[in-house]
Fold these 4 entries.
Entry 1:
Amino acid sequence: MQNLSRITEPEYWLDQMFAAKAARCGGVVRRSQAWVDREVGRETFVQAVRKRGFHLIRTADQFIVVCHNGPIEVIF
C-alpha cells in the first residue's frame, strides 16, 4: 500500500478550502475524513470550522461544512 503524506502546509490547505466559492457564499463544502486527517489533522480542521462559526457534519467517510452560522435543520 502506498504511504500518503501531507504535501501542503495545513494553513494553506485550510485557506484554499475556505476560499472556495461555495464557502465564501455561505454554501456547503465536502471533504473526505481521510483527506482531512492526512492534510491538516482532524482537531485542526474542527477548530478551523468552529473559529469561523460554521456547522460541521460527519457522515459515512465525509465531513460536510455548512459555511454559514445560521440555523440548520435535518429533515430526515
Entry 2:
Amino acid sequence: MPGTDVPRPGSPAGARRRSPRRVRTAAALFAAALLSLGTVDGAAAEVPNGAPDPCRHGDRIAVPGAEFQTHACLPDMTTAALAGTRYTDSADWSSLTARGTRNPSGVAGLQIDGYFPDTSRLNTTHGWDHDAQFVIRLPERWNGGLVVTGAPGLRKQYSLDPLISDWVIDRGYAFASTDKGNSGPDFYTDGVRPGDAVAEWNDRTTELTRAARTVVKQAYGRAPRRTYMTGISNGGYLTRWQLENHPGLYDAGLDWEGALWTPDGPNLFTYLPTGVAHSLGRASDQDMLDAGFTAGTEFLWPYHEQVYYGLTQKVYRAEFDPAYDPSCPGPTAGTTVTEILAPCASDAAYDYASRPDSVRRAVQRVSLTGKIGKPMITVQGDLDALLPVATDSEVYTKMIADRHRGRLHRSYSVQGGTHVDGLYDSHPDRLRPVLPCYRAAFEVLTDWVERREAPPASGTVPRPATGDLVNTCSLR
C-alpha cells in the first residue's frame, strides 16, 4: 500500500539530489537486528536443461553498480527454511498473508544480498544502516525467466518473500527485490525537493532490473528469456511506471492493487483527508462514500482509521507538500507506534485542489499516464478500503484505454478482496485473500506472453460460496 501495510519501515548511484536530513528516525524501531550475511557451502549440480548451477559461480558474480554484496549457497531459499535466519526478515512480511496460505519449500540456489551507493540510512537491516538494499535469488533449477519487484508500502526488500519469492523461485524464476531506496515512516526525509523520495523508487527499480539481468547472465551463461515486473500496492505502482517508462526492460507486468498518482487527481490526497476527518469525527459516512470509498467497506474503516489513513496521509503529504504543515509530522513521523500512527489534525482539512501549483508539479514527477508498452494484468480486491477501486484500478484502466493501449491490458476485480490479505483472518465470512487470484493471474500472464493464449476478458472474479479461498482461485 502507499502508506504502510502495517506500521513498520523499510538515489540512484551517483544520485543527483541526495543530501538527506540525517536523523536517527523511528524507522529503527522496526528494523530487524540481523547479523551480517555470510557464505555457506552448498553442493553444485547441473540442472536438467544444461544450465550451470549458480552456486558454482557465486564468487565470480558481480552485481553491476553495487557498492557492497555478499552471497550464500542455500539448500532452501524459501521462507519455510529462512524464517528466523539472516536471509530474510519475518517482521517485514507480517500480516501480508492469510493464515493457512500454502507455500512451496525446498528450492536450492544462490542468494545475493547487498546495496547500491546511496547517502540515506533509513534501512537498518543487517546493521548496514544503508538504503538501496536488494536481494537476488537464483534457483538451481532455472526456467530461463526473471521476476523483479519492489517493496510495498514502507517495507523493505524481504517483504514479498512469502507472497512472491517463494512461489516464483519454486517455478524456476530468478527473483530480485529492492527496498526502493528509502523506507519506513520517515521515508519523506530522504531527498531535497518534494517528490524526490518517491521518484527514487522508480530509479531504484530500473537500476535493479538492469543489474539483475546481468547477474542472471553471469550465473547461468545466458540472459533471461523473459523478464516480468510485478508488485503489490506501491510495488503495483512501480509495475505500472516501469511498463510506461521502460517497457524495453520487460516482457510483461502484473500489477496487484497499485497506487495511482495523477497530478489532477484522483490520487491519495483527493480522498485520504476525508478518511482522516472521519477518524476524528469531522466527516460522515456519506462524506466517505462521496470521496470515493467503496460502499460495503464500512466494516473495515475502523481498522484503517487506526492504522492507515492518518499515517499514510501525513507522510505522503510531507513528501509532496511539506509547506502545508511543517510542524506535523516534522523531522520524524514519531518515536513510538502511537505517535507514528497518529494523524496530523490539520490533514482533516487538507484540500489538494487549492494547494499551490508546486504541489501538483511534485506529484506530476511520479505520475502515471496509462501509456503502457507491454502486456499487463491488474488485480485488485473490490473491498479495498485503502486504495478504493473507483479511485484506482477503474481509473487506471480507463487511462490505458484512452491511450489506445487496452489491447495490452486486463483488469480483474476480486470479489471480497481487500488491501491486505491478513485481514481475511478477522473477517473470513466477508473477505477472501487476493493472493490465489494473483498467482492465477501470473499464470494467465505468462500464457499470454509465451504461448499467445488470450487472457480472459476483464471483469469480476466471483467469491465462491465454498472451497479453499485461501489457496485457490480461477480466472478462467
Entry 3:
Amino acid sequence: MPSKVGNEPSNRQIRRLFFIALAKQLRVIWPILSGIVSIMIISGLAIWRIEDWRIDEALYFTFVTGLTIGYGDFTPKHVSARVLAVVIGFAGIILTGVVAAVTVKALNATDRGNAE
C-alpha cells in the first residue's frame, strides 16, 4: 500500500528496517547475551542441586529472579544458593540493560534509515 504523504515510508517498511537493524545488533552482541544467559542457567542448575528442587522449579526460579520479578514462591534456604540467587539477579539486570540498549540502537538505526 503506498504511503499517504510524499516519499514517507509505510509502517511496514519502518518495521522491516527496525527488524533488520535489530538482527544486525543481535549478531554483534550474541556472545555477550549467550554468556549472560549461560551464567543464569548454570547458577539455576546449581541451586537445583543445592536446594533439592525439581529442575523446572529451579529454572522457573532462575528466570523469575533474573527478570527481577521475584514472586517469592520459591526461596533458597542455603547461603550458597542465596549467593547464587544474587548472581542471577545481577545477571538479569545486565541482560535487561543489554536488550534495552540493543533495541534503542536498532530504533536509532531505523530512524536514520528512515531519514535518508
Entry 4:
Amino acid sequence: MIKVVRGNPTPEELAAALAVVQARAAAAANAPSGAGPVPAAWSDPARVARERLPAPGPAAWGRTYWPA
C-alpha cells in the first residue's frame, strides 16, 4: 500500500510514481541473487591514484608506477 503523506499529486503524477516503483520491484525480483565475485582490491585502478605523484627529478621515471 502506498500513502501520499504530503502534497496533492495529480492522477498522472501518481500513476508515474507507481510505474517507477513497480519497475524497480520487477527489476529487483529478476536480478540474480549472486552478483558474482567481488574483484580484489589490488586490481582497483583507484588504488594507484590515492598516492601522490613522485617528485620530478633525474630518477622520477623509475618511480612512476611503483609505490614508495
